[in-house]
Amino acid sequence: MRHKRSSNGVTGMAQTILQLLLVAILLVNLTLASTVRRPRLDGRIVGGQVASIQDIPYQVSLQRSYHFCGGSLIAQGWVLTAAHCTEGSAILISKVRIGSSRTADGGQLVGIKRVHRHPKYNAYTIDFDFSLLELQEYSAQNVTQSFIGLPQQDADIADGTPVLVSGWGNTQSNQESSAVLRAVTVPKVSQMQCTEAYGSFGSITDRMLCAGLPEGGKDACQGDSGGPLAADDTLWGVVSWGYGCARPNYPGVYSRVSAVRDWIGSISGI
Asked: What residues have CB less than 8 Å from 255, skipping those under 6 apart?
């Protein structure tokens, strides 16, 4: 079949090729834009210290045949984690390791009975990045565990407040193993400062809060997703996303627990 020449001197075939190129360029741009806010899905706390599960007994590890995300025990049989950690059906064959400082052994592996992902979770903007894991029944006897408190709906902590982040994520150092729990303390960053830092990459919503040092060097990283950001025995944030790990002027972004406190209560009864 022959193609008619267009009125501007370009053949129909050339137009088709041009259109395909434009579509390809658009797809590349969309892909680049979407990767800016890529969640931390695998691998250690950056700039932190080795921690014991005795000191952070609410910390849990989400596992398949390997650790892939963190989470926090908020009551017997209930874990709060990030929604992006629970995408796909594979989460239902995953388990939660409770009561161990190591990802490969110790504590107790518990099955997941049901996943309650926040109905407003947006995988592109990573807004409402929360999931509740309802665990299968297990005996808590001789297991190192306790439950971290939850803030009231819409409560907040002052900017600059030191907050503790923990997990088994990427340390960005060959000398620091990700097999053992690590933790780091960083200050909460104001909403305005965080919005200015990420202005060209997407909005910081009311369901997000930020923490980190202006000079970088301390942060959550890949594999810490879903884990806790805590202060005064209260869970204020869930590790969610960020631009790189521990980069200067780019604080870590956490899902703000107080923004969905009523939802947590409606699902779990807590």
From this structure: 82, 128, 129, 130, 207, 208, 237, 238, 240
DSSP state of 211: E
Question: Which entry of 94, 131, 225, 255 is annotated as an active-site residue?
Answer: 225
Using one digit for the tens of pLDDT, what is the confidence trace for 137-178?
A: 999 888 999 999 999 999 999 999 999 999 986 555 455 456
pLDDT of residue 264: 98
pLDDT grade, residue 4 (50/70/90)?
Answer: very low
64 within 8 A of 119, measured Cβ to Cβ: no
Q: Are 11 and 5 in contact (CB under 8 A)?
A: yes
CA distance 252 to 11: 51
CA distances from 57 to 109, 130, 166, 181, 226 (A): 15, 20, 11, 11, 15
Which residue reads 């869970």 in tokens?
Answer: 235
Q: Is 262 a catalytic residue?
A: no
The pLDDT-based confidence of 65 (bands split at 50, 70, 90) is confident
3-class SS of residue 73: strand
What's the rounded Cα separation, in Å, for the pair 101 and 90? 24
Is 225 one of the annotated active-site residues of the chain? yes
Identify the CA nearest to 151 among candidates 250, 53, 255, 64.
Answer: 255
From residue 230, how far is each of 109, 142, 170, 183, 233 by CA, in Å? 24, 25, 19, 11, 6
Is 129 marked active-site?
Answer: yes
- At 100, the pLDDT band (50, 70, 90 cuts) reads very high
Q: Please tell me which residue in 84, 94, 127, 240 is annotated as part of the active site.
A: 84
Which of 61, 101, 129, 166 is an active site residue?
A: 129
